[in-house]
Amino acid sequence: MRRIIIAFLIFGLAITLLGNEFINEPADSYFMDVKIGKSYTFDELLRIDATESIMVYNKANKSQEILDLNVSSVQITYVEAGRIDVYDSNKALIYSMPGDGSVILGTKSGVDGVISIGGIRYRGYVNLLKGNGAYNVINHINVEKYLNGVLPKEFPTSAPLESIKAQAVTARGFAYSNMNKHITEGFNLCDTVHCQVYAGYDAEHPNSNRAIEETKGMVVTYNGSIAETVYHSNSGGHTASSENVWRSPRPYLVGVSDPFSLNTNGTSWSFTMSKADISQRLIAQGVDVGIVKDMEVLATFPSGRVSNLRITGSTNQVEVTGASLRNILGTTQLRSTLFTIDSGLIKNDINLQVLGEGKTKIIYPSDNLSVMTNNGSLSIENKNVAIISANGITKVNTVTQENTDQITFNGKGYGHGVGMSQYGAMEMAKLGYTYDQILKFYYTGVDVTIINR
Ligand SMILES: [Zn+2]
Questions:
Q1: Distance, CA 193 to ligand 1 centroid (Å)?
Q2: What would the pLDDT profile of 87-125 be if each residue is shown by its tens digit?
Q3: pTM score over 0.85
Q4: d(CA 380, ligand 1 centre) in Å
Q5: Which residues are registered as beta bridge partners of 117?
Q6: How far is the CA of 136 from the centre of ligand 1 (A)?
Q7: CA separation (Å) from 278 to 308, 311, 320, 407?
Q8: 322-328 long-range CB contacts below 8 Å, 24 or more apart?
């Protein structure tokens, strides 16, 4: 009888381990090194506080405590020779450890502990690494706990839970697929917009923590690899394809019609700038057309976003892409490339009778007109068309000037438009869609699955 019970126990244990290995174990066992805050000069002291005893751990085996420092406040510094010195609050040296990253400081609670580093609280551990003429402060932390300090900076914590969960999955995917971004400097990610803004324990919110917990270890994959789950604020009704914004196409980053991003707060916008200011901005970026007179959209992408446009100035005419115009005028002013242009000019189409053919051709103001002469073909500026006939010269007015001092952009959406629309995700969640349905709507042909590295 006893033997049967033991057999049952072993069987049960095996199932539990198997379950953990595929569901809980990986997400809990992945750690990363995040550079936090500024860089410090060698020997500059950094204050570390905790609400419990500070401990020294072996980074490779965090269950192995090297030493209990028996104090809850220390000051530490990196000595250029390659050593970390730890002082107590009386400035007495209490410990020296190697500066090669092999040894870390944490609290008695270890992985779950909270440690104040220079006045800002973080989960996990702290370490110092030699940088370029300075030392860097590194937060050694579980990936899931790292996400707790990222998500509130990227997405409103008051949004419906399923949309926060969708954002949690994209943030996790970013972290895993960018683990080598700073690897030559000895850490994984930095805490600024260069990587993902990470503000530690103090930034955490129960709603975003819950979203991370309920999607633990989940990432978006395409053909078995982690997908680049880029996102933006609002698609304006149609997302953009990757190759229309950046160089490389991605099969899962294709533009989709997005009714969820219509009629949400802030979908439509209008931005007006004086032609003089636009001229200055262009000159500052090395594009000199004199004083800007007119702007015309030449081509759009299937999403409706401006592919390229023509800027006509007093001295020159140039073509620029919609994306570069957005960078020149400011991405927070020109919120997206999904816009139409009102340059204060009313453009009249003219009917031109072509002699000999008896046909009427409509000339559009944006058409390039030319005349054949004995000397070849001459281009003419289409605003000043004059026709000589038996009755004399007739001027044809193709452009009527209205308000010529400024240009107004009337647009929709906010951001580059590729991948998930955050506003659309919130709207979908309100309508009852789950986080994986939201992700599969914005990322074409993907799977949402547990990370397995
Ligand atoms: Zn970075």
A1: 7
A2: 998 999 999 999 999 999 999 999 889 999 999 999 999
A3: no
A4: 52
A5: 48, 120
A6: 13
A7: 17, 10, 13, 9
A8: 323/245, 323/416, 328/281, 328/282, 328/285, 328/287
